[in-house]
């Protein structure tokens, strides 16, 4: 309830009767929007008490207001501001005057990077949603996670523990994760080499802020993961885009660049590149590592979907090879469990992690200690591994079903290379069909569309057979309608 | 399981028998830490299959390894790397060579701001933990929150919804919050004036990044909330500290500063200032707003515990008065529900919010859509209001109990002013007792200690009567022992 004694000003010296002063104050509050249409007002007894006036005075004020239709009085129920009063457009807020001290300072534009189009802010309710490669939360052990979470909030000691030193991530989670990463990726690390981030993006942002600045050069793929490019640009660094082919990023081009100018960092998504889903070949991996030592640049390895590789077993990360500490390895649980969980991690030399922790603390203090410890328990119990194994099998089937569907139904409209892993297929449209047509359809929502390459990402992991069929059928309708 | 075919290199041309090559590869992997002590190895059948060799060959390799004590074979159970092998210190990670490209680049130091000391990284298990003002999670409706959360993850459509456009916060939460803030704080805003952040700190960080930069000036209180100072310094801005007295920040000093140099922003914590817990007086609020218009600076209003004001009803935020859009209002649910929830919010003019959203997306993409919608439901149902009302009553009692305990037991060692609200008391030690002595005690952990003022924050909200008594008794022991 609002502190009405601060809203209602009464001046006993004033000749205007007190009840009129009260009524006037309330009218003013309604007019300037402090009191909104339908908002409840305190009972006359309550208000009289807080204003230090007689109850009859307040009743008189309320009567006057209701007579003027400012308020509605339902006896013995409630008193509220009338509904018919238009909710005034916020004055001081939306329509901020250009005198606003920070008005001019529009540092960051909304990007539609490398001609990609994002429709995330659409308001229409689309019938078909094609994401860019999200897991199926319906398969995830969220129950187990939340049960554990709940149990911690009722433990006396967990209460205090969970809220401290989460800027690096809880010790429990970092220890479990160090073990998990060594078993699954051969990363020979300790908990001190880990920073738990708020999603993989924060790992990229933090690394960028610490490594890059105006004048420094960072190499990225073309096309590249837009949010990573944004993070690099935000530091004022120069982005140098090198081509991506079927074997991943072109390391010879990188070498050529390094010979021309000082490169501070190279950003790679070894498997599977975003958006094109290609896997970086073994030869290029070896050469890239050699270059990083020769030219002393940091490799930011974004390995967001290592766990989902189908045809062969995955390549070990660059981070688990000889790299003289040049590799910053970034991963996430968003792809393993569910995107909105927002728990990611960074692996790096201890001295770099220390800097990251200091910066991370400034950004958002830390993560959710309870959730992190619940996740640690999920890993320790082996539940995470079981889930990933199960999900991998399922996503592989979905990839193959989508492959079959695309060949049968859309074969003559599109082309694509079946990815060896991941959660999405990079679908290229034949020249006669424009991807912009797909974007413009109100009933269809596609997360990642690339106009320059006339292509889009078809995320299959989050859709079951039936949903895949519906989506492809919908696309077929559109293409045959072109 | 590790992809062993990438770890084990077999050269059929090589004169060394294949089983020896396998054994050698595994020994190497153990030595360089890729395989850790106790790590399980695949069964001979499995490994033979993935290496494309005869099973007998693998068995020969395993026999050799176990003969050399590298591995342990428990027939029909498992094969694992021997436990007695020392877990090698991560070579490439902890001990990163100084040639590390980013080694030199230690931009951010660990702060102990204004001589404050943080012991968050202590490893000892303290018996008594005195936080700096955290809510009691045991009172919070976490159950309801998590139940709702769970229900969303099983809804087909919530799945897709929750993961999109959370960079500003879900529409559900922003709409509920706009209503809640208008009812409780008289903030006349729309959902478009809101950014949902990952805790209040992210609001401060984002505002700082957009408003400040090298050469710009920002006014803060002395002493100030350390994490806010860090966020401002990180932008390269100049911090100008003005004094805080019993009426809050000294606005005349601010005016004097504005006359000397261009001030871009003023950071205030109107009630209750951190760490000293004082409330900004009405007169100063009015004058500060006038100054912000006169000198055109932004006011960053950190109102983290508005909801907990005991003696009178709270002052309305600066943000709900006339301010020509100069006020950026920052709040958090961490204090209302639980600290690790990490959901905060920023209220600002729409055009500024748009910039914040663009930046926030780069930092960490967005928040947890499920949790945000669950919180929205909690607000809509009125549960949050009921909780805050209940908690307020409880915290007020705890403040009064602590007041009584401090007077009775520690009266002759300390001094303090009872705060009119909030979750902590700012306790000053008499000169003859040094606060550093408290910090050094292994069984005691205090979140916020200020050596310059020989004082610390005694958070009372998270402790019940019994816990308060224990804490004060413990302090009594120490003081009388001095």
List the helices and strands and how they pair.
The structure is a homodimer of 482-residue chains.
Chain A: H1 4-7, H2 18-31, E1 40-41, H3 44-51, H4 55-67, E2 71-74, E3 78-81, E4 116-117, E5 128-130, H5 142-154, H6 156-162, H7 171-185, E6 194-197, H8 200-211, E7 217-222, H9 226-234, E8 238-245, E9 248-249, H10 251-260, E10 265-268, H11 282-294, E11 298-302, E12 327-332, E13 344-347, H12 350-364, H13 369-380, H14 383-410, E14 414-415, E15 424-429, H15 435-440, E16 444-446, E17 449-450, E18 455-459, H16 465-481
Parallel strand pairs in A: 5-16, 7-8, 7-10, 10-11, 11-12
Antiparallel strand pairs in A: 1-3, 2-3, 4-17, 6-13, 8-9, 12-13, 14-15, 15-18, 17-18
Keywords (chains A, B): Aminotransferase, DNA-binding, Pyridoxal phosphate, Transcription, Transcription regulation, Transferase
InterPro entries (chains A, B): Aminotransferase_I/II_large (IPR004839), HTH_trans_reg/aminotransferase (IPR051446), PyrdxlP-dep_Trfase (IPR015424), PyrdxlP-dep_Trfase_major (IPR015421), Tscrpt_reg_HTH_GntR (IPR000524), WH-like_DNA-bd_sf (IPR036388), WH_DNA-bd_sf (IPR036390)
Domain HTH gntR-type (chains A, B): 16-84
């Amino acid at each position: 309830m609002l502190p009405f004694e601060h809203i209602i000003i009464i001046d006993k010296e004033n000749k205007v009767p007190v009840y009129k002063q009260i009524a006037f104050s309330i009218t003013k509050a309604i007019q300037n929007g402090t009191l909104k249409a339908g908002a409840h007002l305190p009972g006359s007894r309550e208000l009289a008490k807080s204003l230090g006036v007689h109850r009859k005075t307040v009743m008189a004020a309320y009567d006057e207001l209701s007579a003027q239709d400012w308020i509605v009085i339902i006896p013995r129920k409630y008193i509220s501001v009338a509904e018919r009063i238009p909710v005034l457009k916020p004055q001081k807020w939306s329509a901020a005057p250009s005198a606003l001290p920070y008005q001019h300072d529009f540092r960051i534009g909304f990007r539609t990077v490398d001609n990609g189009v994002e429709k995330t802010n659409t308001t229409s309710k689309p019938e078909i949603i094609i994401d860019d490669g999200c897991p199926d939360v319906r398969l995830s052990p969220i129950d187990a996670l939340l049960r554990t979470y709940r149990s911690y909030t009722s433990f006396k000691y967990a209460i205090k523990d969970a809220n401290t030193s989460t800027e690096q991530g809880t010790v429990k989670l970092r220890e479990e994760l160090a073990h998990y990463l060594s078993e699954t990726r051969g990363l020979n690390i300790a908990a001190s080499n880990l920073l738990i981030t708020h999603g993989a993006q924060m790992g990229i942002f933090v690394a960028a802020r610490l490594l890059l600045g105006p004048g420094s050069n960072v190499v990225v793929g073309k096309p590249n993961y837009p949010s990573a490019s944004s993070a690099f640009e935000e530091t004022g660094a120069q982005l140098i885009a090198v081509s991506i082919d079927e074997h991943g990023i072109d390391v010879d081009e990188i070498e050529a660049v390094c010979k021309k100018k000082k490169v501070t960092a190279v950003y790679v998504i070894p498997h599977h590149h975003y958006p094109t889903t290609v896997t970086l070949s073994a030869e290029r991996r070896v050469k890239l590592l050699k270059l990083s030592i020769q030219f002393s640049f940091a490799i930011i390895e974004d390995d967001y979907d290592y766990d989902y590789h189908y045809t062969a077993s995955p390549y070990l990360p660059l981070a688990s090879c000889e790299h003289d500490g040049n590799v910053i390895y970034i991963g996430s649980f968003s792809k393993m469990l569910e995107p909105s969980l927002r728990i990611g991690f960074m692996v790096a030399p201890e001295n770099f992690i220390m800097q990251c922790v200091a910066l991370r603390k400034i950004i958002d203090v830390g993560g959710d200690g309870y959730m992190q410890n619940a996740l640690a328990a999920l890993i320790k119990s082996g539940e995470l591994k079981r889930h990933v194994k199960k999900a991998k099998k399922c996503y592989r089937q979905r990839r193959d079903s989508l492959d079959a569907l695309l060949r049968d139904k859309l074969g003559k409209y599109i082309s694509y290379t079946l990815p060896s892993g991941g959660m999405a297929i990079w679908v290229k449209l034949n020249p006669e069909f424009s991807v912009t047509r797909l974007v413009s359809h109100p009933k269809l929502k596609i997360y990642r569309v690339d106009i320059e390459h006339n292509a889009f990402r078809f995320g299959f992991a989050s859709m079951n057979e039936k949903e895949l069929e519906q989506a492809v059928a919908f696309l077929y309708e559109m293409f045959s309608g072109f």
